[in-house]
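Sequence in, structure out.
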Amino acid sequence: CSEGTLTPATFTCEVDVVPVVLIAIAAVVVVLGVVALIRFRTGLCKCIPGDKSAKAARIRAQLAADKTRDETAEAGLCSAGVPPYWTNDGRTSFDQMVYVGGDSEHFFQRVLTDTYQPIVTQDRPCPKTTSPCKKTPGGCPCNQPGGNPGLPGAFVVRRVIRVEDSELWQRYVDRRGAIMETRADELPFHAFKPPVLTGDSVSQRAGTFEPLRDDGNEFYLWHGTAVRSALSIAQNDFTLDMAGSHAGTMYGRGIYLAESSTKADEYAHEGEGHYSGVHALVLCRVCLGKVYYTTTRNQEAGSKVKAGEYDSVVGDRSKSAKTFREFVVYDADQVYPEYVVLYSRAPSLEAAPAPSRFHIEVPVYWNNCHRDPSSDPFTQTYTVRRRTHDLLQRLVTGTSTSGKKVLEAQRVEHSKMWSRYAACKAGLLAGGARYKAANELDGNLEAGHPLTQVLLEDMDSENAISTENLQEDANELLLWHGSSLSAISSISQGGFVIGAEGHGHRFGKGAYFAEDLDKSLAYTTKEGGVRTVLLCRVACGDFSYTEEQGSPNAHSLAADAGKHCVLANPAGKGPREYVALRAEQVYPEFVLSLEP
């Protein structure tokens, strides 16, 4: 074109406008296409919605509402709304693990099965204990489908534990909110193709899995590790210093997760002892945010996240090596380890034996539940949380007419005493033994159940006392024991000493217990303005039943008959007393201080 009349900083051209406009539009389309392709290939993984500004405004409004709720929350409370299916409602701080009910376990079986892929990588250890194969690209011959023993064809759920931790949940929600706020102008992110494997399974179970923020790339993903390590993560969160220490660091040191249960299972090493034949996967809520996508190994990928360009890394080995996609985050607050799934490997679901209900080695609500009581000893006492305190108060009220108030309640976690007790209980159950229950002995099948047992069954006690792991076949009960403060202190630190206490042996030598708290209170003394009692686990085993008013040699008669415990029911009218013949039959779990 030619210059027209010049004025400062301007000029005019005479042109055919239509061709120019068409060329300009075509150029813009080409540029946008190239930019979009480059962004997808380099991992920006985002798209521009039609009404981006409106979407961003809605997100900012939600974030503002969340922030307001945080600022107005009471100190010490969980301001982030917790999932409605949790046993804790968020009105107080909490940190506990609870067993998921058996009626929900099939949901987790579905997620395990739906995310199974018959693929092997070099990360799956050779199963041979002698002369194992070396690490082989594509997996060793022993692990191939159809090999010997071959790739497991199915994973069978044995038990599921839910993690309810208000502080950990708050940190996760805050981090998710910060990511969404930072990336508000880039939302929603590009959808994964193909979709993440866990998506369909969890989306149909709102009563078990909290709805996800799809616009922020939030997913449920697996993390495989040893059983005790999984329990430790559930108890103490992920530790980035250890992340990748066993699985490798293909994309830098971070928390590695998988959509495929098969991939996660590669790192779920079989346990020993109590956990022999048992494996663990942690099912985590993960906020990936803005993803850096790569199809190649890149140990420096994490640096892009640390620089603030991205929030996570997806290593797509399914394209480059025909194996799996791996998901990596570098901030523990982007992960909430909500479930620990304990399972066994099997050739197929059809060939798997009916799984028995599995219990972890120590009570699931203990702070030390992840530790090995035989090789990692612990001796600690904890003041119980409010929910447990309230449950114990209801138990006190229900087993007594005195109206006593629980002033303080402590839980005893003592590895040596617990190991001794667990071994005794296992011995009672050896050979599939089952003993007659108390109500089968007094002729009162309907009303003869121990009072503490009846009350606990009527309460929602699983998340506080875990009555599910009371072995009914061993006549394991929670029973009261009253004594002096000094005697109770000694018992809680080292266990019972049979015949040591000096308030008589009406039914012979042994450790005496009652289901009726008033009976136990009669043996207490008022000290320091309180009366102190123990609530103990007692593995009664086989009862020697008597209705005599007294029998000083009852313990000898019981032992001679091969019995484990005397159940005394004077004149058939009670109150009943339980006399354990051996100290290892008892675990003193709770110490209660009651108003006098």
